[in-house]
Amino acid sequence: MNKIQNKGWKRKLHEIIYEADTPEGKLFDVVLLIAILASILLVMLESIKSFDNKYHDLLNISEWIITILFSIEYIARIITVKKPIKYIFSFYGIIDFLSTIPKYISLLVGGLHALAALRALRLLRVFRILKLARYLGASNNLINALKASKAKISVFLFAVVIVAIILGTIMYMIEGEENGFTNIPKSVYWCIVTLTTVGFGDIAPQTPLGQFIASLVMVLGYGIIAVPTGIVSAEYTNQTKTDKETKNTNVHLNTQACTNCSAENHKDDAEFCYHCGHKLNHG
Amino acid sequence: MNKIQNKGWKRKLHEIIYEADTPEGKLFDVVLLIAILASILLVMLESIKSFDNKYHDLLNISEWIITILFSIEYIARIITVKKPIKYIFSFYGIIDFLSTIPKYISLLVGGLHALAALRALRLLRVFRILKLARYLGASNNLINALKASKAKISVFLFAVVIVAIILGTIMYMIEGEENGFTNIPKSVYWCIVTLTTVGFGDIAPQTPLGQFIASLVMVLGYGIIAVPTGIVSAEYTNQTKTDKETKNTNVHLNTQACTNCSAENHKDDAEFCYHCGHKLNHG
Amino acid sequence: MNKIQNKGWKRKLHEIIYEADTPEGKLFDVVLLIAILASILLVMLESIKSFDNKYHDLLNISEWIITILFSIEYIARIITVKKPIKYIFSFYGIIDFLSTIPKYISLLVGGLHALAALRALRLLRVFRILKLARYLGASNNLINALKASKAKISVFLFAVVIVAIILGTIMYMIEGEENGFTNIPKSVYWCIVTLTTVGFGDIAPQTPLGQFIASLVMVLGYGIIAVPTGIVSAEYTNQTKTDKETKNTNVHLNTQACTNCSAENHKDDAEFCYHCGHKLNHG
Amino acid sequence: MNKIQNKGWKRKLHEIIYEADTPEGKLFDVVLLIAILASILLVMLESIKSFDNKYHDLLNISEWIITILFSIEYIARIITVKKPIKYIFSFYGIIDFLSTIPKYISLLVGGLHALAALRALRLLRVFRILKLARYLGASNNLINALKASKAKISVFLFAVVIVAIILGTIMYMIEGEENGFTNIPKSVYWCIVTLTTVGFGDIAPQTPLGQFIASLVMVLGYGIIAVPTGIVSAEYTNQTKTDKETKNTNVHLNTQACTNCSAENHKDDAEFCYHCGHKLNHG
């Protein structure tokens, strides 16, 4: 991207909002990041009763400022993208909408406290700005390792759930309602708490037989934690090895996004979008 | 399996029940899977007192429908297999029987709540339908890794149990009955809870010396969790490597089961059962 | 070991007690194993008040029988070894003594309940009989891996303890006595409970700042559990690799023990003890 | 370092304090190590009310002795280094100052209990004396592995925190104040407690839906613990491999410190400091 000339304001705005290679784009990202973190802090502080009572007005005004800022950003995103429908129903499009709307609804309905917490979804927007995939750099063999082991870990977790249901039912039969295992779902919940070595202790076996079975469950949980760990570390070792062998030629990617379909991670010398074939705006 | 012709109804039924390569076989499996999951849901809902009081009749009728369905399936399985005795006393044969019988017994004896939970064993039947081994596909080097490390993990868990008994006895001597360590088995139970990092907190050391020993137990538990994990991941790495080297020629297996001995996982071009030598019914 | 002839009774007894290659030796080991497990069961049952009250006499008599059996065995071991002093002060010699003596002391002093639990040390004797090293077979690269990583794991655990002391002191300053962090040692104990992800919950931070620091401690603990696991699995992978490369020529070892110094694991064709040079009794 | 001659007392003192290759230097380190451990013991004992009441004077006097010893050492360190300012504002310089000053302040202000605990920072000084890096010997590929995986583990922990905030907010909406989830920060704290499998149990979900979400959180936590472990063990395996291939020529380092800039780990045959180029005092 050598020179920027003959661009309409839409194109310029698109570059500022969606990319981080120009100074304006970087500034926009930093401001947005601060706004998101500030808004999350606000959501947290609001939930603390004693704090909300003291500084209610301050919190309310700050929340309105941030909501309006996000609304402007949301509209700007829709205008500058060529296919707005696609953006609106994309993952981040929905997150952007859901994290902006609660304050407006509170104006109409009033006191909808539950909805307010939806604003915490704003945190997911952080991932877009940070463009984490880029920061991770060459470490995408971690993601490959996770993808490669996804099927096996799913089967493993599925087996864990079945074991939890069967052992939970057995514990329900042994301990019964008088010891806190009031029904099978609760008993299964206890079993997952124990198998994963969390161990809250809100429910704990009281009968000798129950404690014996619980010991087996714990030793089992202790033994099987080795399985996902083993899979991931083995797959990851393989990934790094393959990586070395294929001499992973480090292609440099930039943060530019296609004005048509918003696809990212284009190569520095790309002339057209790899996703939709639209001309990229290299000045 | 090219054409299916000249088959008796028994042979056809056998194919539907035991195999999943024909449309009827697949349909049967899906219906059975839904029935099993529905019946597990019933068992769970029944155990919730408030729910059972409200919808007792509905639950009872649904349970009878499922029990009758399972009974028919059980009889059909016996009829279509050439050696019914072998099936009846096989692992799945016993599971099928135990998960069907409780409802009939409740008719005779009445109010045998404890037995009712036996029906949760139905969940084990899921494994048969899903034929998980197949779904796991080429990932059977996970199973090989687990088999290879079985002996070592057993020895390891055996050592953990011995450590738990000795440390449990020491904690019983230090803390005594007044701090919840009422007897040695309970003390050993506490020790397993702690070693496996579950930590319910229903029993916790109160004396300074007891807390010091507990700290040692915990750091020990934290250190030794590395052992099974290390074994599995190393074995798994080895398995994947051997796999690559021997160019694991992917033999395609089908879900067909021998009409004589119910052995599964025959090769696609197999003419005779690899287990009992009986002719397979390739049309 | 082809023929056994011209042996004194001492030599024969030594072979029965210390080795497991002859039928008599195997029988002796099995009987001893049962006696040990029975005695551990006795110690456990005795500690359960309700059980002890009912069957006190039965437990007492059984305990005397086992104590006398172990006494005879202890004496036999001393007689048949050429250097009894060495045996008496060896690890297993002390265990054998400590696990036999409590019952005799109870005769003299009476009601020394605490000492009685010493008998749980008998469990350590199981390791001798099982000769676990042999059962582990070729898996002694696990032991090598543990030895290779011992130094690093020690340094790691040492660092964990220092972190626990410093963080414990900080938590003591933040939470104070009113929230259960009554003094620094107790606070350090809490910190170890948390770092190792055990989490009893008998002490838990109550102040927001305390909970924030606790969160950091937990995430830290969650992150550093990776270190020992990573070390062991990497070392173990290395061991298995070296193993393959050096073509580990499977030397067959027998369970014979030297009559002079009790060294074990002699090669099948060994003529002299590898430890003291004493002639081995190959008939 | 062959012969030591023609040195001023400053140079000699520098050698004793900062190095461990001469007998005097070793003696100094051992005395300092004992003083540090004794002072930590004092801080702990002081915090135990019952102990402090009984032996207050003894503890006070011991603390003064150690404080004066540390003060002398601190001044000696400043005098013998050529650039004292650099030392004073170095990591260990600040630790040395902070761990010495509290007793003097208590003289002026009196009863500043909170400050007293600062003395626990003395423990950090242990790392300087032990010069752990050296003890770890060739194992610095563990440190390399940790460095190599630092970025990935940071991203991972960052993602864990974001997941905790979002799930914490959801749990706050579901469980609400009546079940202990009084505000979002507390709810996030609970979520971290659960995700890291610590599970105190001071807060635990009570509603069925909350328990269901909690189960998901736990299984998630159980699954993702595999990630940092996998990374570290894979990186460590790589480090050890690279190590072997590059034939890591074992350079022998000594504990000598530059009199000018205090840089350590000079090679045995080094004539000048690798950091500031100052002449090293090889007699």
From TrEMBL, chains A, B, C, D:
Source species, domain of life = Bacteria
> So where does this one cross the membrane?
27-46, 58-81, 101-121, 153-174, 212-234
Q: What is its main location?
A: membrane
Query: What Pfam families does UniProt report for this protein, alphabetically?
Result: Ion_trans
Q: Where is the Ion transport domain?
A: 26-242
What keywords does the record list, in alphabetical order?
Ion channel, Ion transport, Membrane, Potassium, Potassium channel, Potassium transport, Transmembrane, Transmembrane helix, Transport, Voltage-gated channel
* Record has ATP-binding as a keyword: no
**Where is the signal peptide, in residue numbers?**
none
How is the protein disposed in the membrane? Multi-pass membrane protein
Locations listed in the record: Membrane
Listed name of the protein:
Ion transporter
Q: Which organism is it from?
A: Thalassobellus suaedae
